[in-house]
Amino acid sequence: MAAWFLAAWVGAGFAPCGRAEAQPVRGQMREVTPRGPLDAAEQAVIEVFERTAPSVVHINTRREGATPMGQRVVIEEGEGSGFIWDEEGHVVTNYHVMATATRAEVVLSDGSVWEAQPLAGDPDQDLFVVRIDAPREKLRPIPVGTSSDLRTGQSVLAIGNPFGLDQTLTTGVVSALGRTITSISGKEIQGVIQTDAAINPGNSGGPLLDSAGRLIGINTAIRSATRSSAGIGFAVPVDTVNEVVTDLLSGGSPVVLGISRAPEAVERRFNMGRGVLIGSVSPRSGAAEAGLRGTSVFRSGRVVPGDVILAIDGKPVNTFFDIRRELRERRPGDKVELTIFREGREYEVPVVVQARPVSVD
């Protein structure tokens, strides 16, 4: 009987005193293997992100609407990204992020939320500027680089809010340079940067950075059958961003022709491949005195297109930004030579520019 008990005891996994054997304990945590220091490339990316992320913001847009009963409601419109431009609280994003919004909130990297005041935008270049009244200590302007010296293959980083997931970092390279994409107004944006850094809905308006953490572009569009990243993203180059934003904040050129742009829907209707279609001509302006014609829209829906400005002093113009750029160095009373397209023919028309009045865009 004793022999049987001893055998059963040992067979059950118990050992007599003095002959105990260590057995593994189920659920015990594994010993951690030291990894050693991060390699230089990893550390560099981490440092760029930590240094630049405070300059990147999350933008939530709203639109005011009405119920069938006529009650006013605020509708969730969408979201995008942006970045702090200066210590005055100016924030840059894409025009299409703000295009249909009547209200917007900017969420800083520390989670604080600020009402955004829309200031100005350029649909031809898909750029928009809003302003927030945050204290200076919360504002970290993004370092600005250049895009004219970019090279295919160099490393890039994108920070934004894809699908509402804020402060998301993706990395890649410059896949190509000099691409062309179509803006929200139907105009072509030239010199666009192509990248394989993952860009998804919500990334729009966020920064594309070089390996030094400098802004080199603003993430604007993707090419994908699924509307999600397929490794082909596009960013408006920073040289364009810098010029357009400066122009928007300064109120544009000091002089005007005395014209307004045609509505985007009208431009798309006439499939404007080049030039700028005149929407209206201001009375007693240089354009009016030169006999330029605006676009006429009748109640019946019939539209008679106006003159199309093709060039100023021989330099081609395709967007309103191009016109403002050509007028930036002019002074009131200067004469410019416009090349216009009217009724199937091109004409040269001299126009005397005037000082910018407050009421003229």
Gist of the model:
The protein has 7 helices and 23 strands.
Number of helices: 7
Portion in beta strands:
35-45%
Helix content: 10-25%
| Strand count | 23
Distance N to C terminus: 107 Å
Outline the biggest β-sheet: 7 strands, antiparallel
Which structural category do the helix and sheet elements fall into?
alpha+beta
Any low-confidence stretches, pLDDT <50, length ≥5?
A: 4-10
Shape: elongated
> How would you write the strand order of the largest sheet?
5-4-1-2-3-7-6
Mean pLDDT: 85
Radius of gyration over alpha carbons? 30 Å
Question: H/E series, N to C?
Answer: HHEEEHEEEEEEEEEEHEEHEHEEEEHEEE
Describe the structure.
The chain has 361 residues and is α+β, with helices and mostly antiparallel strands. The longest helix has 13 residues, at 40-52. The model is unreliable at 4-10 (pLDDT under 50). Strand 19 (308-312) and strand 20 (315-316) form a beta hairpin. The protein is 16% helix and 37% strand. The chain is built from seven helices and 23 strands. The chain has a seven-stranded antiparallel beta sheet. The chain has a six-stranded antiparallel beta barrel with strand order 8-9-10-13-12-11. Strands 15, 16, 19, 20, 21 and 22 form a six-stranded antiparallel beta sheet that branches. The relative contact order is 0.11.
Topology:
Blueprint (H helix, E strand, L loop, with lengths): L1 H10 L28 H13 L3 E11 L5 E13 L5 E4 L1 H4 L4 E5 L5 E3 L1 E6 L4 E5 L23 E6 L7 E15 L5 E8 L11 E4 L4 E8 L10 E5 H13 L4 E2 L2 E3 L2 H6 L6 E6 L4 H4 L6 E2 L5 E2 L3 E5 L2 E2 L3 H8 L7 E8 L2 E8 L1 E2 L6
Antiparallel strand pairs: 1-2, 1-4, 2-3, 3-7, 4-5, 6-7, 8-9, 8-11, 9-10, 10-13, 11-12, 12-13, 14-23, 15-16, 16-19, 17-18, 19-20, 19-21, 21-22
